[in-house]
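in:
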C-alpha cells in the first residue's frame, strides 16, 4: 500500500542490476510513493539490458555512469537535472564489487591492485558521489543520501575478504560527509546495514548460503529481505526521518544485538 511518502521528490538510484537487486526494489517502491528519478549503473552492467525493463515500469531514464569516475558522475548529474527539471532530494548508493572476491583470492593472497579497485568501487565512490553533488550544488535542502552496507565492517566474516575494509570506509565516509552536508544544506547521510540477501553481489561471496541460514537463525525476526530493505530506504528518503544523520542503521532482524539464539543452540545440540 502506497502512502505518497515521496510525492514530488526527485532522485538518482545507483545499482539496479536485475530484479533481485536491492536497488531494483527501491526503484519500484520509490515510483509507487510518487518519486521521479533516473537509474544508473556501470556501462558494463547496462549491457545486460535488464535495467530497461525496470526503466519502463518506473518511467525513468537510464544514464550510464561508472561510479569510480568523477567525469561520469558529473555527466549523470547534468543529464538528471535536465530530465527531472530540477535538483535532487535523494540519492541511493547501492554498489559493491570486489575483484578479489569475484576471482576467489584468499585473504592471505590478495592482489593489491584489485584491493584498491574494491575500495574505489565499494567505498570511495560514495565520497565521489557526494563531492560532485556538493560542487555542482545538486542537492535540495533537507535531502537524504544513503548507501548500503554490511556488518562485516564491524565483525569478521572470513569470506567477505577485502569488502569488509571497503564497507568500513563507506560507513566512515557517511559520518564525515554527513557532518559536512548537514552544515551545508541540511542534507542527511546514512548507511543501512542490511541482512544477507540473495542478489548477484550477495551470492558472489563463497559460503553465502550457509551464512544466510545462520543469520536467519540468529536473528529473532529472521533475515530482512530486499523488499523490507526497500521499505526502510523509502522511510529514510521521506520527510519522516529528517533528523537522522551520520548513522549506520542496522536493518537485520535483530542479528547485531543477538549473542545466540534457541535455533542455533538446537542446531549445535544435534
Ligand atoms: N546482498 C547482500 O547480502 C547484501 C548485504 C548487505 C549489503 N549489501 C549491499 O547492497 C548493495 C547492493 O547490492 P545487491 O545485493 O543489491 O547486489 P547487486 O549485485 O544487485 O548490486 C550491486 C551493484 O553494483 C553495481 N556496480 C558494480 N561496480 C560498479 C561501478 N563501478 N559503478 C557503478 N555501479 C557498479 C553493479 O552493477 C550492481 O548493480 C551493495 O552495496 C552491497 O554490498 C548487500
Amino acid at each position: 500500500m502506497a502512502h505518497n511518502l515521496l510525492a514530488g521528490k526527485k532522485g538518482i538510484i545507483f545499482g539496479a542490476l536485475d530484479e533481485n537487486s536491492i536497488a531494483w526494489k527501491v526503484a519500484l517502491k520509490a515510483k509507487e510513493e510518487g518519486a521521479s528519478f533516473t537509474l544508473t549503473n556501470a556501462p558494463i552492467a547496462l549491457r545486460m539490458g535488464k535495467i530497461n525493463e525496470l526503466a519502463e515500469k518506473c518511467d525513468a531514464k537510464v544514464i550510464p555512469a561508472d561510479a569510480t569516475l568523477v567525469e561520469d558522475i558529473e555527466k549523470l548529474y547534468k543529464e538528471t537535472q535536465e530530465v527531472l527539471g530540477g535538483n535532487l532530494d535523494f540519492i541511493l548508493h547501492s554498489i559493491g564489487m570486489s575483484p578479489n572476491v569475484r576471482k576467489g583470492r584468499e585473504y592471505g593472497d590478495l592482489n593489491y591492485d584489485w584491493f584498491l579497485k574494491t575500495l574505489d568501487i565499494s567505498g570511495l565512490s560514495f565520497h565521489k558521489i557526494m563531492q560532485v553533488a556538493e560542487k555542482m550544488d545538486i542537492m535540495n535542502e533537507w535531502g537524504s543520501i544513503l548507501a548500503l552496507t554490511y556488518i562485516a565492517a564491524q565483525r569478521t566474516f572470513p569470506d567477505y575478504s577485502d569488502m569488509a575494509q571497503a564497507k568500513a570506509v563507506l560507513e566512515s565516509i557517511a559520518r564525515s560527509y554527513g557532518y559536512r552536508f548537514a552544515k551545508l544544506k541540511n542534507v542527511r547521510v546514512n548507511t543501512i546495514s542490511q541482512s544477507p540477501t540473495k542478489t548477484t553481489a550477495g551470492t558472489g561471496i563463497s559460503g553465502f548460503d550457509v551464512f544466510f541460514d545462520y543469520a536467519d537463525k540468529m536473528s529473532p525476526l529472521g533475515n530482512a529481505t530486499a523488499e523490507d530493505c526497500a521499505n526502510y530506504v523509502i522511510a529514510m528518503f521521506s520527510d519522516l526521518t529528517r533528523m537522522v544523520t551520520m548513522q549506520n542503521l542496522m536493518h537485520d532482524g535483530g542479528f547485531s544485538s543477538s549473542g545466540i539464539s534457541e535455533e542455533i543452540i538446537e542446531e549445535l545440540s544435534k
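note: Residues 112-135 form the longest helix (24 residues).
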